[in-house]
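Narrative of accomplishments. A recurring question from our advisory board has been how the design workflow behaves on a single, concrete structure rather than in aggregate. To address it, we present the structure tokens for one chain from the evaluation set, followed by the sequence designed for it. No filtering or post-editing was applied between the two.
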């Protein structure tokens, strides 16, 4: 298989300051998604870097149990903790707590579009305050050891009238950032519309070649992965919702980057085995009050697009017993195995983009044309239908 040179580079190692990553295909930080179990699964399927869910710096510094749980290491790869906040003191203290607990890289969230985050002038709201944003980077850089790179994830700007990603990124790098990730939408877009490549390319052109620039947004298939690299010249590609319930995507991207054929989607047996592993990890690491919630999430992910998956997801809300949920899902896979034995396919449709589904649903209801990531599960349902909630993704 002939490999596009623009794509082939993504199979090579990437240096972020003194830290060397094995490849250039990353899992994005997403609250309620990139938790410890899924980070471990994604790493096993070839993600070169996985990043924690967003953690409030002050809560982590104060030892809050949930913040500490979100920042725990997953697997044997490089450990990255993403911090959020707007006060230099707490960002520094949070970074110190994360590095004391073993973080190899500290990432700072300046891209979250959720109203609950921007209302506190954090996340993507910081793009309207470049001087403050640079000060936060400087405070963290001063606090953590030189061997710990400080990185930032941000958007293209606050809205279409304030696209400032290149100059914003330059200020962050001048303050000590060792890597910049750009999501190709403004804060005003939320997760609607299309991610734009031009602002990411402009950031790449604006920064020294020694500073990696990571492209993020709408990488949901191999073609999107190749477009991102070719159109932006980015040094690595970060995958967000395209990986939800689809860790095999990293396997496909790794193969394509090496010039090998795409191994394609998993078999039904492999899907079942990975669901079992993911479900076991959630039961091992999730707080007791969240175990039913997390188990429902895994069965929603791994049943998506399969015959009878919608009915399974609906039935999952008829019980709050984890054992019953696991038995229900095992029976679901048993039925599909029997179906395949008759020569009929278990995969009914290609799984739809869960964020696009939710945007369409809200638009039909006359609601806002913007949706926060914390309103979603992989099947397009909402945490309002379940127990617990999550903070939005960046």
């Amino acid at each position: 298989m002939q490999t596009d040179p623009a794509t082939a580079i993504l199979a090579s190692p990437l240096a972020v300051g003194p830290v060397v990553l094995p490849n250039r295909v990353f899992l994005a930080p997403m609250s309620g998604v990139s938790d410890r179990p899924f980070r471990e699964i994604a790493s096993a399927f070839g993600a070169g870097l996985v990043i924690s869910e967003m953690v409030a710096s002050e809560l982590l510094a104060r030892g809050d149990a949930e913040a500490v749980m979100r920042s725990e290491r997953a697997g044997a790869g490089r450990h990255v903790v993403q911090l959020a906040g707007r006060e230099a003191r707490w960002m520094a203290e949070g970074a110190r707590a994360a590095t004391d607990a073993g973080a190899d890289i500290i990432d700072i969230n300046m891209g979250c579009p959720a109203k609950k985050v921007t209302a506190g002038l954090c996340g993507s709201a910081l793009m309207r305050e470049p001087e403050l944003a640079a000060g936060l980077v400087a405070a963290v850089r001063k606090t953590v050891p030189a061997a710990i790179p400080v990185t930032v994830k941000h958007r293209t700007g606050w809205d279409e009238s304030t696209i400032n990603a290149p100059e914003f990124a330059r200020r962050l790098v001048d303050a000590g950032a060792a890597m910049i990730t750009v999501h190709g939408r403004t804060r005003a877009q939320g997760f609607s519309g299309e991610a734009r490549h031009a602002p990411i390319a402009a950031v790449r052109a604006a920064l020294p070649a020694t500073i990696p620039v990571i492209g993020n947004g709408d990488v949901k298939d191999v073609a999107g992965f190749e477009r991102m690299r070719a159109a932006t010249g980015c040094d690595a590609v970060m995958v967000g919702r395209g990986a939800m319930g689809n860790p095999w995507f990293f396997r496909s991207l790794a193969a394509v980057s090496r010039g090998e054929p795409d191994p394609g989607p998993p078999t039904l047996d492999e899907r079942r085995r990975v669901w079992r592993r993911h479900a076991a990890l959630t039961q091992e690491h999730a707080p007791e009050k969240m175990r039913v919630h997390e188990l429902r999430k895994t069965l929603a992910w791994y049943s998506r697009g399969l015959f009878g998956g919608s009915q399974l997801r609906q039935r999952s809300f008829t019980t709050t017993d984890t054992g019953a949920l696991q038995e229900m899902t095992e029976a679901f896979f048993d039925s599909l195995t029997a179906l395949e034995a008759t020569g009929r396919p278990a995969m009914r449709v290609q799984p739809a983009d869960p964020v696009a589904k939710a945007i369409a649903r809200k638009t039909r209801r006359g609601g806002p044309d913007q949706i926060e990531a914390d309103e979603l599960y992989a099947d397009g349902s909402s945490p309002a239908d379940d127990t617990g909630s999550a903070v939005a993704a960046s």
